[in-house]
Design brief:
The complex is a heterodimer of chains A (about 250) and B (about 180). With about 250 residues, chain A is α+β, with helices and mostly antiparallel strands. Helices cover about 50% and strands about 20% of the residues of chain A. In chain A, a hairpin with a 2-residue loop joins strand 6 and strand 7. In chain A, helix 1 crosses helix 2. Chain B is mainly α. Classes of the chains: A alpha+beta (about 250), B mainly alpha (about 180). Chains A and B meet through helix 1, helix 3, helix 4, helix 5 and helix 6 of A and helix 1, helix 2, helix 3, helix 4 and helix 5 of B. The structure holds zinc ion (ZN). The site of zinc ion has 6 residues of chain A, from helix 1 and helix 3.
């Protein structure tokens, strides 16, 4: 870990936002780096003083009264309903602002937000020349590489015989967490298979969604969440997922 | 839609959104640095939130309200930029400070610390956007990184780097202040 990374991650450590593995990594860096130790200590002290200081404001009582009055609360009466309508129409919401609100509401949907992060991670992997951390077509090389980098190493399966070539693995970040990405190739097309641990062990059947022109097929199995992302067609991606799951089951049983 | 639905909706909205009034008002104060503008923005925020409550799908109410408040504040920034540039000047904001403390005076307010709180609020006010907003959402409104990302519509990684910048800037201002008062 470089100091630049540590100088950002030490805040996540202070805020208790890191999983155990990353917390250990940051702590290990701080322990051996005087500059980062100094910054960490100073920031911890500042955070302590801030927590002890009244920095919040209280809304004035008159504001609370005004807002409460604007929310309909009497018995249903036709006139009140038109008052509510009046508010809805009368408030100066531009079409643009309304669109903003819709976008925000969509972001609230956790699955959707994570899907968009997964697709962004796929895009990053294609653009930044950071497709693969460990280059190997051998599943016995790729799988151990993940050990120690993630709490649970993703399953790595060679599907070359089934028409999907294993090309390597990569550590990526989705939803503020490290996540394993296993990279496959179909002709000249890249498939990123993102795998993360989940608390739920229930089986979630595969489902394909399209985002920013990419197909993403996601499913849940054996306490893991999977997202396969690629620009190959939806049926080919479904075929990939079928082959992967068949091979997984054969592995587990065999 | 039957009339009673509107009232049920209003009741659900009241229970879900009103408990965060102080949070929303706090963010508005830091973003706008003006008590009466903050009141107007918060009222507008709640009106819009009520209007769009039908499309609200959760999970967290606080980031949703903050996101709406940001839209309202952005409109206010635009209005200020057109009407009177001087509103943004720091002296104007500094003039407000004694008034805030009078308004804030309450039995719970620690008298000894009230001066420190005023000084620290001023330092936070002076932070540049978008760093101030990220800092206030994390340190004062207690949002998780993920919730901040939702409220500001930026990736979590961006939130993390903004927060690190904000804290570094605040620490620098803090150190300068201490040197100055020696
Ligand atoms: Zn370091």
């Amino acid at each position: 870990m470089t100091c630049d990374e540590a100088q950002i991650l030490l805040h996540a450590l202070l805020d208790n936002e890191l999983d155990a593995g990353h917390a250990r990594e940051v702590e290990a860096h701080i322990a051996t780096c005087p500059a980062c130790t100094a910054e960490f200590t100073a920031q911890r002290e500042m955070k302590r003083v801030l927590a002890d200081t009244k920095l919040r404001y209280s809304a004035p009582a008159s504001l609370r009264t005004r807002i409460e009055a604007s929310i309909p609360q009497a018995r249903p009466q036709p006139s009140r309903r038109s008052v509510l309508r009046g508010f809805a129409m009368g408030s100066a919401v531009s079409a643009l602002a309304a669109t903003g609100v819709v976008a925000v509401v969509l972001r609230q949907d956790d699955q959707q937000r994570i899907l968009s992060e997964v697709v962004s991670a796929h895009l990053r992997s294609l653009q930044a020349g950071h497709l693969i951390d460990v280059v190997s077509t051998d599943q016995h090389t790729v799988k151990p590489w993940f050990n120690g980098k993630l709490d649970v190493a993703p399953p790595v399966i060679d599907l070359t015989a089934q028409g999907f070539t294993l090309v390597g693995g990569r550590l990526d970040y989705v939803d503020a967490r490290a996540i394993g990405a296993v990279v496959y190739k179909r002709r000249q097309h890249i498939i990123n298979l993102f795998v993360s641990q989940t608390a739920s062990t229930e089986h979630r059947p595969p489902k394909t969604q399209t985002m920013q022109g990419f197909n993403c097929r996601r499913w849940g199995e054996r306490g893991l969440n999977f997202w396969a992302v690629s620009d190959i067609g939806g049926d080919e991606l479904a075929e990939f997922v079928d082959k992967f799951e068949t091979a997984m089951k054969a592995n587990v049983e065999g | 839609m039957p009339v009673s639905d509107d009232f049920q909706k209003a009741q659900r909205f009241r229970e879900a959104a009103l408990p965060y009034l102080d949070d929303v008002y706090t963010l508005a104060r830091y973003l706008l640095r003006d008590a009466s503008d903050a009141e107007d923005a918060v009222q507008e925020c709640y009106l819009r939130a009520l209007k769009h409550f039908d499309s609200y799908r959760g999970p967290a109410m606080k980031p949703w309200l903050f996101a709406i408040l940001r839209n309202v504040c952005n409109a206010e920034y635009a209005r200020r930029a057109h009407s009177h540039a001087a509103i943004e000047d720091t002296p104007g904001a500094a003039d407000q400070t004694p008034m805030w403390q009078e308004n804030e005076a309450s039995p719970e307010t620690e008298v000894l610390r009230s001066r420190d709180a005023g000084a620290i609020r001023k330092m936070i006010d002076a932070l540049a956007e978008p760093f101030k907003e990220t800092f206030v959402l994390r340190e004062i409104n207690n949002l998780s990184y993920r919730e901040i990302a939702e409220a500001v519509g930026a990736p979590v990684g961006t939130v993390m780097s903004r927060l690190a910048r904000a804290r570094a800037m605040l620490r620098a201002a803090w150190t300068a202040e201490e040197e100055h008062s020696k």
